[in-house]
Structure formats: C-alpha cells, structure tokens
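Please check our next protein.
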Amino acid sequence: MQINQHWQGLDPDTRGASVAMGNFDGVHLGHRSVIDLARPHGPLGIVTFEPHPREYFAPQAAPFRLMNAEARSNRLAKLGVKQLFQLPFDAELASLSPEAFARDILAGGLGVAHVVVGADFCFGKGRAGKAADLQALGQTYGFGVTVAELVKSDGREISSTAIRQALSDGRPRDAAAMLGHWHRIDGEVIHGEKRGRELGYPTANMSVAGLHLPKLGVYAALVDVLTGPQAGSYHGAASLGVRPMFGENTPNLETYLFDFKGDLYGQHVSIGLVDYLRPEMKFDGLPGLMTQMAADVARSREILAAL
C-alpha cells in the first residue's frame, strides 16, 4: 500500500482511484461497508485525515481515538487498499468550502474517479457539506459518488462511540463484533523499567498516548510482531494501566509474549485484546504479584488456545 500525505504533485499513477472517504477510526464494520462499495469502481483508495479533525478543533479534549495512524494504515492494508491518501488536517484544509474541497483536492489534486462516503459524512468549512452535496459536486467536477447506508448490529448502528463504550466496560469481544477484528494497539516497543524481566516475565512496553483507553487491567492478547527478525504471531498476556504496585501513574501497555526469547526494542508490534481477565491490583509484596501473574498467564493460555 502506498501512503500519500499530501494532495499536490502526486505521481500520475495515483490518479483514477476509487476512494472511500472518512476518518475510519477503528476501521469497523460500518467502515468496511463503505470501503467495499468503492472496490468495483477502480483501484481501491482511502481518503482520510491526520490528525483526526476532532483533535485539530479540540486539542485539549480527552483522548478518544481507537487507533493511531499506524494501526489504521496496517488494518487498511489488510483490506487490500492500494492508495492511502492521509491528508494533513490543518488550517488550510479546515478553511476550504465544500466546493473547493471537491474541486481542488478530490478532482484536481487526487484525480479520483469515484468517491464513497457514509450517509452521515460531512465535509468542508464548518461541516457545511453533506453527502448529497458531494453527489452534486461530483457531477460538476467529473467523479462518481456513492452514499453508503449506515450499518446496524442487533438493530443498533455500529459506531466508534459504541465500540469505545464496550472497551471502557471491559468487553473486548463485544467491541470485536462491531469492529470485525480484535481491537488492536499498534506501535513501537519502548524501554520501560524492566521489572517484568526481573520477575521472570519480560514485557514489550508501548505508549498509549492519544488513544481512548480500554478498561484498565489484564487481558488475554494476540500479538503480531510486525518488524524485525522475529516477526510473526504470538500469544500473550497484556497489562494496561498505571502500575499501582510501583506508584506510577502514566498509563502504558505491557505485554508478555509466551514462549518468546529475543529483543523487541525498537520493533513495531500489534496487540489484539481478546478477553478482560481482571482489574489492576496492588499487592502486599512481590510474592503475591508473581503468583497472580502466573495465574494470569495460565488463564490467557487457556483462552487463546480455544480461539
């Protein structure tokens, strides 16, 4: 998949794509329906924005994203996307009228052949443009437009909001049913305090900055090592939280990979949350912590073996 982070001066070979357009936070089943409608009309592309427009307009708001840009691009690549147009959402883009966006970016800059959006899609300054407006502008500027109906599950619309709530409640399987895949946290393995190694459970540490936090606690997890000589798929147990045993309060994700030996520092991994095992706990001492960690690992092995 080719990633383009601008719309000007692109290779002519990128023109003529059939694109699904939106934020695609989580790349859930509703997003999948939009993407699938774009497939028959030309080389499959995505038009999305980075940062998320909500982050641009409300930078002090609490983190809400289900996926960072890396996780989103990894998921879109698995869906067969050929061109990812990850447009910088800045003052210039935010100031464009709906017509200027359609004319200058979609038609002039990207040269799209077809655009698919969800029925609730809005675009242009002040979110003034609606899906019907895009259809009219497409006729004017020479690209087709399809509007996808919203997807429902059990009579309810699938939304990033509903998925965030399921994760906050510690219901990763319910979130996965709406996503169409396990909820994943992707990123680089960073150096931590290395306490897990001292206890016999070395962990891959990752930042969760900027992301909506699922319920803090311990999870059975699927692990994909995306880069490096040990790239592959593994089972593991992941702890998401602030490590109350050691008085720290910056949330991070620490994952113990079963039957793994090696150094993952600087490599990129993807952690899929499967089942919530228990909340974070503060133990009286290390023996209690180690006993619980052994129980967590045993329970995670049992759950993941049954997948």
Remarks:
- Residues 116 and 146 are 5 Å apart (CA to CA).
- The domain at 182-305 is CATH 2.40.30.30 (Elongation Factor Tu (Ef-tu); domain 3).
- The longest strand covers residues 268-278.
- The radius of gyration is 21 Å.
